[in-house]
Design a protein that fits this description.
elongated, endopeptidase fold (from Nostoc punctiforme), 2 domains, two-stranded parallel ribbon, disordered N terminus, 8 helices, 350 residues, Helix Hairpins, six-stranded antiparallel β-sheet
Length: 350
């Protein structure tokens, strides 16, 4: 039969899993609800378990917030490009319309000349009205030049009109894209604000739980997990990333931090691999799509290992079933066994 402290720990874990599942399956950010704090723990182990369960929830919310921020930034970039395209298209419209107006004048001049001279604007009239063969040749040559100029003017006018129409269509398309991007940005901003508020609410809970931790609880959170397995990575970049991450053992976990002295989980992996010349995206979920997938049976030191479905945590594999990672708030960068909710691995340094 389970003891009361163990039952409370299990209840805390179930609550954490429920919140993470609700966020991961696409529930609107405005619908996210955070669990109420449990009854005060009866012992130190129970207090630390509750704190870690709440910290795991906060880590998930932090990752969701970071992804929402990335989505918002990407849509803002789309909006900026669409507005730039719109400005360029409008300039093309104005230039093409100016050209059309200019060539319209020339075309109108030819039309007026043709109307006024009537039948004189052809080679037969040049022959009939000429005074000599040379005069005929001169008149014919002049008519040919006029005909070429007329055709060129008509072609220029037609090209300008078509260019104006094409530019106008480009402007319409850009305007529609800009409006769509603007609408999407507004929705994403609302989502970002809601997730930020959810994270802050969870932070407030953690602050309350933190006051229940004993000195020994806090000391256990500062534990860096012992020595690394020391197995060599297959590539220089992977080895350098491992070395950088291990050099940060004991560094505090801070939401949204990417180094050099504080980190969240994806911030540590991005920082470590960045020092090795490998660029990674900002969030654990985005990192889980980089590089190539690796079966668990073929893990090598330096591989990124992911946890949760959807992914909410990432570390760097060290070998012997261990990883270096930034666990969650109140904790430090440390060496740990792979977590139970392991969900996959990616190799980003070949």
């Amino acid at each position: 039969m389970q003891s009361q402290p163990i039952k409370r720990v299990v209840a805390g874990a179930i609550t954490a899993a429920a919140v993470i599942t609700a966020v991961g399956v696409g529930v609107p950010a405005s619908a996210i609800t955070l669990p109420a704090l449990q009854n005060p723990p009866t012992n130190s182990a129970d207090a630390l378990a509750q704190y870690r369960a709440a910290a795991q929830q906060a880590e998930q919310l932090n990752e969701d917030k970071l992804k929402a921020q990335d989505d918002f930034n990407a849509k803002q970039a789309d909006l900026a490009k669409a507005n730039g395209d719109l400005a360029t298209a409008n300039q093309k419209v104005q230039a093409a319309q100016a050209d059309a107006a200019k060539f319209q004048v020339v075309v109108d001049q030819f039309a007026d000349a043709s109307f006024m001279s009537g039948a004189q604007m052809n080679k037969l009239s040049a022959l009939l009205t000429g005074t000599s063969a040379q005069d005929f040749l001169d008149r014919s040559s002049a008519l040919a030049v006029l005909a070429d100029d007329k055709n060129r003017a008509l072609q220029n006018y037609t090209d300008a009109v078509n260019a104006a129409a094409a530019a106008a269509q480009q402007a319409t398309d850009a305007r529609n894209r800009a409006q769509a991007a603007s609408d999407a940005s507004a929705q994403l901003l609302n989502d970002l604000n809601a997730r930020s508020a959810a994270l802050q609410a969870q932070v407030n809970q953690l602050q309350q739980l933190s006051g229940r931790l004993s000195a020994s609880d806090r000391a256990s959170q500062r534990d860096t997990g012992g020595s690394a397995p020391g197995l060599p990575a297959p590539t220089a970049a992977a080895q350098q990333a491992i070395n950088v991450a291990l050099s940060k053992l004991g560094s505090s976990y801070v939401w949204g931090a990417t180094g050099p002295s504080t980190f969240d989980c994806s911030g540590l992996t991005m920082y470590s691999y960045g020092k090795a010349g490998v660029s990674l995206p900002r969030t654990s979920s985005a990192q889980s799509s980089t590089g190539k997938a690796v079966p668990r049976s073929q893990l090598q030191p330096g591989d990124l290992v992911f946890f949760g479905s959807p992914v909410h945590h990432v570390g760097i594999y060290l070998g012997d079933g261990k990883m270096v990672h930034a666990p969650d708030t109140g904790d430090v960068v440390k060496i740990s066994p792979l977590q139970n909710d392991y969900s996959g691995a990616r190799r980003v340094a070949y």
